[in-house]
Amino acid sequence: MPMKNGIADRLHVYRCSRCGYVTVQVPEVCRSCGQAGRGESIEIPEEGTLYTFTVVYAAPAGVNTPYAIGYVDFDRAIRIFGRIMPCDDLKVEMRVRLARGPFDGKITFCFQPSDAGNEGS
Amino acid sequence: MRRVSVAGVGMTTFGKQPERSIESLGEEAIREALKDAGIEVDRIEATYCGNAVGGGSVGQRILHGMGFGGLPVVNVENACASGSTAFREAWLLVAAGIYDVVLVLGAEKLSNRFDGVITLDRDVEAETEMGLTMPASYALIAQRHMAEHGTTREQLAQISVKNHRHGCLNPHAQYRAQLTPDQVINSRLIADPLTLYQCCPNSDGAAAAILVAEKLARAMRHPPVWVLASALVSGTSLRRVRDMTWSDIAARAAHFAYTQAQIAPSEIDVAEVHDAFTIGEIVAYEALGFCARGGGGHLVESGETALGGRLPVNPSGGLLAKGHPVGATGVAQIAELVWQLRGEAGERQVRNAHIGLAHTLGGGVAALDGVACAVTILGT
Prior knowledge:
Strand content of chain B: 15-25%
Radius of gyration of chain B: 19 Å
Radius of gyration of chain A: 15 Å
Order of helices and strands of chain A: EEEEEEEE
Helix content of chain A: under 10%
Oligomer: heterodimer
Strand order of the largest sheet of chain A: 4-5-6-8-7
Largest sheet of chain B: 5 strands, mixed
């Protein structure tokens, strides 16, 4: 799979060596504290917690709706934004896990509720 | 620093006005503000113009249309806080003793720019690629606020109901119709839990203010309305574990403003806050110190922020009912406060209003909790 936003087969993130700020994009400099360098590359845990989400019904032309997006927390230290699929019956604080794409257009990964579709896609 | 007074204000009606040019809207607001201050256009020494999407040089285009050129004109873009930022820059220069009379202008034409939701499509950010829109960025805050603080859909709707009720009393407002909580909750879903009537409209309009140095303030047509504080901060990254229900950017701006004015939140008599989406007003209550953290939903439900309550918020109708011509919004908030503090706000007058606060939050960079937040405090 081609690299996109720092993602190959598994979802890696970069954690700043100074402040702990995490990003999925390969950083030249920490966007939080200005520390130079890309920091430590870490693989995110398999399962995380849905910090918050929304189901979007009004989107730019050409984007299929509805769809869900949200922030997922891992080990209370890493927060990653992504699509949540499917978009029904989502709840704040529910357990979700990473699923690999490609899905719709540029979407290369998403999160799925852990109790639905554990196999990924 | 010298004391600075807002000597005159003016604004156009807000709304969809596709037949009018931005020059015509801007000129109307400027002429109103000059008349209000009781001065001629040749007294202006510099102009600061807030505009977000007008394509550049909006200040010069408007002033040229009035046959008035040659002076320093600075065009300011800070997303939804463009007008507030223009106000702050003008205030700084008068306070610093550089100019004695400065025109602040905010003007925007959105009706021919956007149809539907505004996306966050500056350069492509990862969040935007995955479907983040402007209403969705507020809906994410709302969902967490509901889960963590027990805020209800009814409380969210109450913000829209209140501000539309206020808007009915404002001749400048885009929407002058009452809404019921059911109408708000049952309107079309935009980004759950936010429905159509919880999202501000795209509007056309302009607003202007004349700032003068203290030595001139008492020679103007109206008694002075002093700028007690003007604070501006930019946002910090959302790509980390943090409490998204807390508007850190607004809390930091408010802290600077309260410190500068040497007043407490409890001393505010009237406020205009950035209710681009209903949840925005609720989190602003908390960050501005109008209630405890997490208590914003209860505050609107109590009725204390409605006209007749302890601290009326958005007596103008706010962005939800008055409209949101992005670059003009911050200046229009100032105009409303000036009318309120002078006792000229007609049917929507807040009784015994001596100190007013305006809060404007610009967004549009997906990775940040805001582009810019301005908090301004005015007093008689």
